[in-house]
Design goal:
By secondary structure, this protein is mostly helical. It has helices spanning about 1-30, 45-60, 65-85, 90-110, 125-170, 175-180, 190-210, 215-230, 235, 245-255, 255-270, 280-295. It is about 75% helix and about 0% strand. The longest helix is centred in the middle third of the chain and has 49 residues, at about 125-170.
């Protein structure tokens, strides 16, 4: 029965991969012409471009080598933070409890109707018990969120340091004209420094601001982190194939695509099994988005992806 299940699973993966070849190839053939690069291409075209690149990234991530690299990153990230959280479990518990208590008392201040003893809310010992239970539940939620966030950030950093070079090399096999034009990106200058520092500034300035906004702050933070999820990989995707000016032009012309691609990549983390492939899939998707833009910028149409190439 085990061998039958394994055979069915492998067949399903192969069918899914073949389907992604057809759909991604169809989307690539019907992509933007070179005359569309100057004006805004529109929301629908932007979303379609992001979806196309995400499919190309997922397809590349289904290769055995990509699967092994992606899973290795998750093992390192999960093992590292599991060991740290276990070693400092008392400190983590104390910090989480303090944060949860701050949230509970903050809600009581800004929403007095939720405070124990107010109208409609049990008072006395029962109310305090409810507050204690809420604090306990929120503390565990805070620990879970902190652990997940730490693992995701670590996996992203490891992907930038050890994975993006391989991913970019693999993606370039689909764009032989671009690979032939590859050249060093040039010295670090004012433009390249601005490209590097802006996402960090956005994270440090806008991140805390989103946390201060009630209700909608979480949605804004999700969109911001999703955008930065793909934006941080642009420099590695364009390394040695684009100048700083071209990278800057790409970022300005593809903010919607980068945001949509980041949201898709973030959601991919929550898909069973496919979430394990997200480091390679996300990096590959950003590489495809960058390279397709550079191809259009050089007055060439995006090359047709050959399903049998770059395996």
């Amino acid at each position: 029965m085990t061998s039958s299940f394994r055979a069915d699973f492998i067949a399903a993966v192969i069918n899914l991969r073949d389907s992604s070849y057809v759909f991604a190839d169809f989307m690539t053939i019907n992509s933007i012409s070179t005359s569309d690069i100057a004006p805004k291409i529109g929301l629908i075209r932007s979303l379609r471009e992001a979806a196309t690149c995400m499919l190309l990234g997922i397809r590349s991530a289904l290769a055995l080598r990509a699967i092994l690299f992606s899973i290795s990153l998750w093992i390192v990230a999960i093992g590292l933070w599991s060991a740290l959280f276990f070693a400092f479990r008392e400190e983590v518990t104390q910090l989480a409890t303090a944060a949860a208590a701050l949230v509970v008392f903050g809600l009581a201040i800004f929403f007095p109707g939720l405070a124990p003893g107010s109208s409609g809310v049990a008072g006395g010992g029962v109310g305090m018990a409810i507050a204690a239970m809420s604090t306990f539940a929120l503390s565990w939620l805070a620990v879970a969120l902190a652990y997940a966030f730490a693992v995701l950030i670590t996996a992203r950093v490891l992907a930038e340091l050890f994975l993006m070079g391989r991913v970019q090399k693999h993606a370039l096999e689909f764009y032989p004209d671009l690979a032939a034009m590859a050249a060093p990106s040039g010295a670090f200058n004012k433009v390249s420094f601005g490209i590097w520092i802006r996402p960090w500034a956005a994270l440090l300035l806008l991140g805390p601001l989103c946390l201060l906004l009630p209700v909608i702050g979480g949605a804004f933070l999700f969109v911001l982190l999703s955008y930065l999820n793909s934006r941080f990989l642009v420099n590695d995707a364009a390394d040695n194939i684009a100048s700083s000016a071209e990278v800057q032009h790409f970022i300005k012309a593809n903010r919607i695509e980068l945001m949509a691609l980041g949201i898709l990549a973030t959601l991919l983390n929550f898909v069973p099994l496919f979430g394990l492939l997200s480091p390679w899939a996300t990096g590959s998707a950003v590489c495809h988005l960058t390279m397709r833009h550079l191809i259009r910028l050089s007055t060439r149409t995006p090359c047709r992806v050959n399903p049998g190439s770059a395996q």
